[in-house]
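User: Sequence in, structure out. Go.
Assistant: Echoing your sequence, followed by the structure tokens.
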Amino acid sequence: MPSSEIAFPLLHFSPKTRLKKTLLHKYCIAMRFTKRNIIPLLVFILSFASILRLVKISVITSYSSPIFSALSLVEHSHNPLAEKEINFLYDLVSRKSPCNILVFGLETQYSSQISTINRGGFTVFLEDNPAKIKLYNSTSNADSTRIYRVEYQTVASDAYKILKHARQNQKDCYISATARPSSLKHDVHSNSSRKCKFMSLVTNVPKEVYEVKWDLVIVDGPEGDKPESPGRMAAIYIAGVLARRSKNKNGTHVLVHDVDRMIEKWFSWEFLCDTNLFSSKGKFWDFNIPIKPNATTFCPA
């Protein structure tokens, strides 16, 4: 056979081989499409995100009024109460009203309503955040309500150290709690108070707070959700002090919020006592502190 007539054998591809070639061809086309279009798509997404961020910054800057700033601070500083907790709080205030109510903390969710329910009574708020005070003053018209700015000389991370100090000076702390002062200055600098440091852990507390016969004390401040927050150690102690000084015939109720947190539990047990726990709802504990003339400690051994 002439060399020019030499025939090469035919190449036969199996169905699998043809399928692989088809898929490979489509993949190459898709990759070319992706490379052409992915860069513009990424540029669009990044540009849109940048525009949104600029709009957000512009909005925040344009609303930098004191009220807007106060709202921002208030919104992020406190977990809102559940409906059952709000109803529990309002029901207790309604049953006591009109009466003398002291509140540690100034929360927009319910503070003005407490003053409204307690119309004819006397309501005092102790707050350390000036933005909250400014916001409340701008929205409330309550005549029988007073707000005082106090300062806490504590941080939540020192809670155990403070509790240890209280236990080591239990007798002096109890004397400070039950001895009604003739003046705030005398109370803070008395012999017992020099050993029990709690009274000096909160400053700017007005004299009348220690002089009024309180029917209900609510502890929902200061902030205590971070190690650097003031914590409610001193607030719970002072609530226990005021409840015992009031010497109400039917006892003084002390309502503590956020008892799911360790500090609120520790200090409530220490100064308000589990034997005085009257009721509870959600994150509220309601203590009723009775008169015990012969007691020498906050809680029975």
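User: And one key feature?
Assistant: The longest strand covers residues 122-127.
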